[in-house]
Design a protein that fits this description.
The complex is a heterodimer of chains A (287) and B (452). Chain A has 287 residues and is of the alpha/beta class. Chain A is built from 9 helices and 10 strands. In chain A, β7, α6 and β8 form a beta-alpha-beta unit. The radius of gyration of chain A is 19 Å and the shape is globular. With 452 residues, chain B is an all-alpha fold. Helices cover 84% and strands 0% of the residues of chain B. Chain B is built from 16 helices and no strands. In chain B, α1 packs antiparallel against α5, α7 packs parallel to α14 and α9 crosses α14. Chain B starts with a helix and ends in a 6-residue tail after the last helix. The relative contact order of chain B is 0.13. The chains are: A alpha/beta (287), B mainly alpha (452). At the A-B interface, α2 and α3 of A face α6, α10, α13, α14 and α16 of B. Chain A: Pfam families: ABC_tran (PF00005).
Chain lengths: 287, 452
């Protein structure tokens, strides 16, 4: 499967034939001096505004590269990326930064809150850097914190918060700029089960209640099942899609992918166990 | 990608090893040079006058040299140990006892420090020999006195530097290792706001001692003699070290005063003020060498200018004394300058992940550099202001004692040159280091680098 397109609602994100090769001529970073590694091999997709999409795949399948290219953290080797209908700008890093600042929100596994700023200052940071007027932005920040139920944390610093609280602040910061797309990279990876579930609910609500487009990379079938759609990635290509997913079905398809990849000898061994364990965990959770 | 991270971590560690090595090496060279004068003084057939001159030179100049070197070496190694707080926390959570993790850090420091001291031996020998020749050329010591390099040079130069290095890394590592893992991470990110009472009292005592040197110089010393210069010089050093110890408090005061001005620079200025406010200890690290560099070079050079203006016809001995002064101030100024670059680079490089977080939140590369500039400006203003105060505290009383005027006209030029030099060093080091951290892809820099 090469392309996933939905008609109707406005388009929040479009990738056309995106290729990313690390270690090619002119690519400084990445897989090092060896032969070039193709992390993304012609990925095309289009996501409607207000949808929540999970991206899954075995390790090394290109999930993180896909997120980084779609979010303007890295430039694809070829192909086009459009966020909210606008193409990623050429030119320098400053231009790319301004583009991200106005159109894209990030939530990472390791919160990435600035340690010396309070929660309020952290949430306001993108607007502060954009030079937006303070008073209005300040009111908006408080509104977002209230919506997420963490307004009482506004004057604390990240070190005083639990992991779950920090991740909610990170989500508040990502939502405060009203981005076209909110990208989340393993947002529950560092959290315990119950904080993780709260974060996932929050992302679900952002899509349902505020019409926020969310794209989440995860390896956890339970987390992926919170989305409207799960996209499966293997060897840098989109290979499968699942709508209205359930964790057991997600786990089953992941297991199939894992064994396919293992049979081809491209990924580390031992795929069955973790997925089965995750599926079992889900069953316990449901029961 | 794992290899990239490992490479980055090794490169980072190499930087902090180089910093520790340089501090110990240069410190040992300076201390050995002065301490070897004590060995020379103890030689057979050295006359009483010569013995006194050599002992005074070694203990007065070498005495504050010990203070300067010990505080610089201690700060550098404390910074290196503090930057490993995360790694120590990891070791602790893997089952290392506090004792084991301290032994690891102190053991590494011992190796680096030993290498620094051993390599410093030939240079310390050369430095001591040069000092003796300068003393002989200026007629302060008879030509017949033979150079000796022995127990004192080794005990004070090598032993003192090693001891300062080990004590500093032991103290910092022990504090880091005793904390629970969670606390260690918090401390590492907060960078410390608390200044110890011992540090405050020691700082105040030294400032008062320096000020009393100034009073003695102005009131009771004979300006026509060379010893008034050494008392005045001591005043600059003591006041300078005192201000260096008080640096966290001074940075706080200057930040409070300068915050509205920096706010005019836009969001990077505001963010810089917020960053310094949360981490006065970290900001104070770079203030220390700025104060010392400014106090020592401005103070000594101005006093020499005072002497020169009072004695238009310099005798051969006067010329020798002048050269000796320039050599001594040169050694210590170079040392302070290297420490300045060392500490600024180490502190800036350690902020790689923080800069990446700012970039992720929407800061352009230019905005990050502007914030670094604003923070460095706060440290510079603090260091230059109080370094100048320390220099004035020695140079003005000396000038009053020698010429009756407050300061010679050449003092302004000397001060301007020192200020410009220090500012270029500090800003250059900070911006170059910050720019270099920007070369790491943002997503790599964001991964929690335990080894960094």
């Amino acid at each position: 499967m090469d392309s996933i397109t939905r008609g109707g609602a406005a388009e929040a994100l479009r990738l056309s034939d995106v290729v990313k090769v690390y270690g090619a001529a002119g690519e400084g970073e990445g897989a090092g001096a060896g032969r070039p590694v193709t992390a993304l091999d012609g990925v095309s997709l289009a996501l409607a505004a207000g949808t929540f999409t999970s991206v899954m795949g075995p390790s090394g399948s290109g999930k993180s590269t896909l997120l980084q290219c779609a979010a303007g953290l890295d430039r694809p080797t070829s192909g086009r990326v459009l966020v909210g209908g606008t193409e990623l700008p050429g030119g320098g890093e400053s231009e790319l930064t301004r583009f991200r600042r106005s159109r894209i929100g990030f939530v990472f596994q390791h919160y990435n809150l600035v340690p010396y700023l309070t929660v309020r200052q952290n949430v306001l940071l993108p607007q502060t850097l954009a030079g937006r007027r303070r008073r209005r932005a300040g009111a908006e920040a408080v509104a977002v914190l209230e919506r997420l139920g963490i307004a009482e944390l506004a004057d604390r610093r990240p070190a005083e918060l639990s992991g779950g609280q920090q991740q909610r602040v990170a989500i508040a910061r990502a939502l405060a700029t009203r981005p076209a797309v909110l990208f989340a990279d393993e947002p529950t990876g560092a959290l315990d089960t119950s904080s993780g579930r709260q974060v996932l609910k929050l992302l679900r609500e952002s899509a349902d209640a505020f019409g926020q487009t969310v794209v989440m990379v995860t390896h956890d079938p339970v987390a992926a099942a919170y989305a409207d759609t799960v996209l499966f990635l293997a060897d840098g290509r989109l290979v499968d899609e699942l709508s209205s997913p359930e964790a057991t079905e997600v786990a089953r398809r992941m297991a199939a992918l894992d064994s396919r990849v293992t049979a081809a000898g491209a990924a580390p061994a031992g795929p069955g166990t973790p997925v089965t364990a995750a599926a079992r965990a889900f069953r316990t959770e449901v029961a | 990608m794992a290899t990239g991270l490992a490479r980055a971590s090794v490169a980072h560690r190499r930087g902090s090893f180089v910093a520790a090595f340089l501090a110990v090496f240069l410190g040992a060279v300076i201390l050995m040079s002065f301490a070897s004068l004590l060995d020379t003084a103890g030689g057979d057939g050295v006359g009483k006058t010569d013995r006194n001159t050599l002992t005074i030179m070694a203990s007065v100049v070498g005495g504050w040299g010990v203070l300067v070197v010990a505080s610089a070496v201690a700060t550098t190694l404390a910074v290196a140990a503090r930057q490993r707080a995360g790694e120590l926390a990891l070791l602790r959570s893997l089952g290392a006892t506090p004792g084991q993790s301290v032994r690891l850090v102190v053991g590494e420091t011992a190796l680096v420090a030993l290498a620094g001291v051993v390599l410093a031996l030939p240079f310390g020998y050369g430095g001591g020999w040069t000092l003796l020749r300068l003393l002989q050329n200026s007629g302060q010591v008879r030509d017949g006195v033979d150079f000796a390099f022995g127990a004192s040079a080794l005990a004070v130069g090598a032993g003192g530097t090693l001891l300062a290095a080990l004590a500093a890394s032991f103290g910092t590592a022990r504090r880091a290792a005793r904390r629970r893992a969670v606390e260690a991470h918090r401390q590492a990110s907060a960078g410390g706001r608390h200044t110890s009472r011992f540090r405050l009292i020691a700082g105040l005592v030294l400032v008062v001692a320096g000020a009393s040197c100034a009073v003695v110089t102005a009131t009771s010393l004979d300006g026509s003699k060379i010893d008034s210069q050494s008392v005045a010089g001591e005043g600059a050093i003591l006041t300078g070290i005192g201000f260096a110890l008080l640096a966290p408090v001074l940075v706080r005061a200057v930040t409070a005063a300068a915050a509205p001005l920096l706010g005019l620079l836009g969001s990077p200025g505001t963010l810089g003020v917020l960053a310094v406010r949360q981490r006065f200890q970290r900001a104070a690290t770079a203030v220390m060498p700025i104060v010392l560099c400014t106090a020592i070079s401005t103070g000594t050079l101005t006093m020499q200018a005072v002497w020169n203006s009072a004695h238009p016809q310099l005798s051969a001995d006067d010329k020798g004394t002048a050269i000796l002064n320039y050599v001594v101030v040169g050694m210590l100024a170079v040392f302070a300058a290297v420490m300045l670059v060392n500490l600024v680079v180490a502190e800036t490089t350690a902020r790689r992940a923080e800069f990446a977080q700012l970039r992720l939140a929407g800061a352009t590369p230019r905005q990050v550099l502007r914030q670094v500039t604003a923070e460095t400006a706060l440290m510079l203003v603090t260091g230059l202001l109080f370094g100048t105060l320390a220099a004035v505290a020695s140079a003005v009383p000396y000038s009053l004692a020698v010429t009756g005027d407050a300061l010679p006209s050449s003092a302004v030029g000397i001060h301007a040159a020192v200020v410009a030099g220090v500012a270029v060093l500090a800003l250059g080091a900070a911006l170059a280091a910050a720019r270099r951290t920007g070369r790491t892809p943002m997503t790599t820099a964001l991964r929690p680098a335990v080894a960094a």
